[in-house]
Amino acid sequence: MARPYVGRFAPSPTGPLHPGSLVAALASWLDARAHGGRWLLRIEDVDTPRCVPGADEVILGQLAICGLLPDEAPIYQSSRGAAYREALEHLGKLGVTYACGCTRRAIEEAMVQLGILHERFEERVYPGTCRGGLDGKQPRATRVLTVCGGTEAVISWTDRRLGKQHQNVAREVGDFVIHRADGLWAYQLAVIVDDGWQGITDVVRGEDLADNTARQIHLQRLLGLDVPRYLHTPLVLGADGRKLSKQNGASAFDASDPLGALQAAASTLGLPPIEAGDVSQWLAAAVPAWRARWVA
Prior knowledge:
By secondary structure, this protein is α/β, with parallel strands linked by helices. It has helices at 19-34, 55-65, 81-93, 104-113, 169-172, 187-197, 213-223, 258-268, 279-294, and strands at residues 6-9, 38-43, 75-76, 97-100, 141-144, 147-148, 151-152, 154-159, 163-168, 176-179, 202-206, 229-233.
């Protein structure tokens, strides 16, 4: 029996929502409503050095202006440390984690020695330097094995938009960090622990996060968590052709014209123009449009 649909939007409070993040918010809200499900909001504030004070309230206000209201009060990852610690300890008991003493520079040098060239923006494949022990180095981060019992973690899944996906995590990523050297929880661990705890059945998010999916499925399987369905939405690109993001100076969407902002987001999602007098009317018309476009 299929589980009742539960979706979520999980912004990081590093600044206001820009047109690209509004696309992800709208898509996840529409998908939940089109399935007759619940839509939750999670503030992913574990990366505290990047968080901007008050940005969470700004985000909540932007969503409210656009009529995108969660079905429960938002949760904050900064309050979930005990759950992440429990998951880390469980993985340790399974024997699938180890301490890593490598700095970024040491990893780069190891890659050079192995003849591995790294292009800018490409994933750095961790060469497994500390897999057999620290060799005198001080422990910094905790990594999870991607080769367990001699078997490489090879993950296949079907994205609702991108189709069949496949990644050999061991060869394309390597053992990845789940507890950072600065003591903060890594995104990959926090997100799957919270998705499992909240009963998330469907993850709808930007295509830039698609490459994370195999790592997250690997962790979900190790922890015995249900694997959600995934839908990765098109990206809004800047003038330079790169993904619009806070890191490259993306401005907040125009909250003084929520109908215009919603229609622009809908256009990116492949939905037709919608004539409506206000936000609630627009959203009511957008739900069947989304259902016809994205719900099988």
